[in-house]
Design brief:
The structure is a homodimer of 317-residue chains. By secondary structure, chain A is of the alpha/beta class. Chain A contains 14 helices and ten strands. Chain A folds into two domains: 198 residues, Rossmann fold (3-Layer(aba) Sandwich); 91 residues, Rossmann fold (3-Layer(aba) Sandwich). In chain A, the strands form two sheets. Chain A has a six-stranded mixed beta sheet with strand order 1-2-10-7-8-9, sandwiched between helices. In chain A, strands 5-4-3-6 form a four-stranded parallel beta sheet, with helices on both faces. The interface between A and B is medium-sized, with 23 and 22 residues.
Chain lengths: 317, 317
């Protein structure tokens, strides 16, 4: 297992800068007042394909040598990683094969196809996915880019924290959502060298709190079919992300789905940005644990902005 | 009638800069592809109170001498002007009195009160509003800040176009929504000196197309009770805004409510920002008149971001 280094992150930033956005940092006097902290929101939802995952995906895609690039990349994902990898592959002009459950939302499939990704549908089970993916990879020779358990991906995600530090003039804490742990790991990677005094805090849905329980237990615990409105955070930690979580994360806080939806509405209303339920978990945990954040300069990573506007979580409720 | 000058606009920018945000300009590769133009969106929805109107309001408020400031300001409005004037008055620490119809949405009243504005309710008729306002003004001595027919307000709104030019390195056209014409007038004021080669184009709802008809007729025509989803654009032109519209605007385009809602969803989805129906009219008119914009560098002013998230125009439809 190769652990990516600070230098890998610097090289990643150099490599991907022409292909990603240096996303803005937004603030709200109202949300500062409400939380008693000074909040800085890093808007990764403003990446062209709408998620921070374009950083890691671009680092993998643009780091391939020409021979491998000709065969392209491959992954299995039904979320932002699939569309961001397709987007990066489109920018480089190489093939991208994605295995997706046939039950994935049509909008997700449409986005992957819009970016030129080739979808192979599988049944919504682990065995079907693995079988389909092995076949696709054998046929295409595409380089497997895992959504988070990949050192190139983690080095790429770490570039977000580098920009965040440059844009904010010092933060006491950075809070990011945790699912598989790719963004949190990249954040730990960067801050442990660049700003070791800045704490990294993970925010997780109560109804998918495997990282929280792993953190307490001291080893990886995977959830059995978690279910939460924060559908970007359903996947478990893997060895590479567990390395960073267990060594560098200061705390993991959780919030209920109702609290996540409330926080999401607050951000839509007062920052006036469109973001996913998953990206609202940091604010939800801050509102729930105000004492831990009071008076601090707190960075929040708004991880993504791909939502179905016709099915917002507060509709019909 | 005093016509504000370019120097008034420069003085306004100097005066209000500490109190407003230099809002960012956003782009979307997808929307460029869709329209065939290069679009730049100036995000005035990102002002703290959520609308460009904080510019004109701040210019009026911070330009008062101490004696008048002690008596504060007053206006009648049920929209963004009321909350932005309250916000600016709060920043200076002076009273703000607002006459609002008792039928105005509770959320609008709450916002004005959150910023310390004092609301006097009137019946939803012109006579009741005028009577109530005269009374409030007589009692408080508050300086009347009209939502748009005021040279200080127009000079303030013009600061948006100044930033836009500085941020974009040249635009062929700027498209802004037109209601009373405050933003359009400020844009004309600034661009006619700073970038006279840049056309100013107004975008208006078909169902409240009084500016379009006035523009064609050559004199002000007021609508009889217009009704459109773009509820920030219901008010008619007045002499001061008509001066700028009739002298400097290159064209007025209109769009239907259905087209406005479609454009609003496109912006929410691809720029991932929360903005009002009124602010979607420019994109709606561009999509409807693609030939007029093809290949051009087009600036769009996203005028405001205050919407009721529980009553989005595409809900229950």
């Amino acid at each position: 297992m190769y652990i990516p280094t600070y230098e890998d992150m610097l090289a990643a930033h150099e490599r991907i800068q022409p292909h990603i956005r240096r996303t803005p940092v937004r603030t709200s006097a109202y949300l500062n007042e409400l939380t008693g902290a000074e909040l800085f929101f890093k808007c990764e939802n403003f990446q062209e394909p709408g998620a921070f995952k374009v950083r890691g995906a671009s680092n993998a895609v643009f780091g391939l040598d020409e021979a491998q690039a000709a065969k392209g990349v491959a992954t299995h994902s039904s979320g932002n990683h699939a569309s961001c990898l397709s987007y990066a592959a489109m920018l480089r002009g190489i093939p991208c094969n994605v295995v997706m459950p046939r039950t994935a939302p049509q909008a997700k499939k449409d986005t992957v196809r819009r970016y030129g990704g080739r979808i192979t549908e599988c049944e919504p089970s682990t065995s079907s996915r693995e079988e389909s993916f092995a076949k696709v990879q054998a046929e295409t020779g595409g380089d497997f880019v895992h959504p988070y358990n990949d050192h190139r991906v983690i080095a790429g995600q770490g570039t977000c924290a580098k920009e965040f530090v440059e844009q904010t003039d010092g933060l006491d804490m950075v809070v990011a959502p945790i699912g598989g742990g790719g963004m949190i790991s990249g954040t730990c990677l960067t801050l442990s060298t660049l700003a070791p005094e800045t704490q990294v805090i993970a925010a997780e849905p109560e109804q998918a709190d495997d990282a929280y329980r792993s953190f307490k237990a001291g080893y990886i615990i995977a959830d059995d079919a978690p279910k939460t409105i924060a559908d970007g955070l359903l996947v478990p930690l893997k060895e590479l992300t567990w390395h960073f979580v267990s060594n560098h994360v200061s705390a993991i806080y959780t919030a209920s789905d109702a609290e996540i939806i409330d926080a999401m509405k607050l951000i839509w209303k007062h920052l006036r940005i469109v973001m996913e339920p998953s990206s609202a978990v940091p604010l939800a945990t801050i509102l729930k644990n105000k004492d831990a954040f009071a008076g601090k300069r707190v960075g929040l990573i708004v991880t993504g902005g791909n939502v179905d506007l016709d099915k917002l979580p507060w509709m019909n409720s």
